[in-house]
């Protein structure tokens, strides 16, 4: 019995030595340690995008109607050219210049590039010429000043519901000519109250309009933080 145990012990010892010798042969590099697990909020930087150029296209035609984005800021217009009606988009900070130089009904020449989007073909405006006057997107929009944000109380009756380009409700227009922006979740939960004629109050954050931006009907815009309707107050996230 002792002899058998001795043989087993010797065999195990030889096997361990052989394994150690194989794993740590002289001159052989150990494999690198595994990469640390991904930490939330620490996504790797995306690969750098190479520079690109875009060929500009010129269109001649007539401005039919100016259009707004989800915040009721003018950022586009419908355009009739060669018998077709096109959707034109421009940076919102150009609105004041464009509305002054080329109001609806003006015949103008546009420079820009067309892009295919989920909304359909969109022509992105780079420059507009009317006679000898040219408006172009040469200067980037000024960054918003955080100090220009301020708390704002509001109260009034809903006179109209605001919709985005897809036709979804994204805010309320109060009788005081104020647009109250609401996130989709709040719209869904409070849909029974979001009707013209309903009275409500609340608090929110009002941001000063960047230079050059124009809102439809000169509405003041407030992002809601609380809403008080029918005796209940709701926190808006």
UniProtKB/TrEMBL annotation:
UniProtKB keywords: Signal
Region called Disordered, residue ranges: 27-50
UniProt biased composition (Pro residues): 29-49
Signal peptide positions (record): 1-23
Protein name listed in UniProt: Uncharacterized protein
């Amino acid at each position: 019995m002792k002899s058998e145990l001795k043989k087993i012990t010797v065999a195990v010892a030889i096997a361990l030595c052989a394994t150690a010798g194989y794993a740590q042969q002289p001159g052989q590099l150990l494999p690198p340690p595994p990469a640390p697990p991904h930490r939330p909020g620490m996504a790797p930087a995306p690969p750098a995008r190479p520079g690109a150029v875009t060929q500009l296209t010129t269109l001649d035609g007539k401005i039919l109607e100016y259009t707004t984005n989800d915040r009721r800021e003018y950022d586009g217009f419908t355009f009739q050219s060669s018998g077709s009606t096109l959707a034109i988009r421009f940076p919102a900070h150009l609105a004041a210049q464009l509305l002054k130089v080329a109001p609806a009904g003006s015949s103008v020449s546009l420079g820009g590039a067309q892009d295919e989007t989920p909304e359909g073909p969109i022509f992105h405006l780079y420059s507009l010429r009317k006679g000898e006057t040219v408006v172009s997107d040469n200067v980037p929009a000024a960054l918003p000043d955080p100090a220009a944000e301020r708390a704002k109380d509001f109260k009034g009756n809903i006179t109209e519901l605001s919709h985005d380009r897809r036709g979804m409700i994204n805010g309320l227009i109060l009788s005081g000519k104020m647009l109250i922006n609401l996130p989709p979740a709040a719209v869904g939960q409070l849909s029974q109250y979001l009707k013209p004629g309903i009275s409500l109050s609340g608090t929110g954050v009002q941001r000063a309009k960047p230079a050059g931006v124009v809102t439809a009907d000169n509405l003041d815009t407030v992002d809601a933080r609380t809403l008080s309707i029918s005796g209940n107050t709701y926190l808006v996230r």
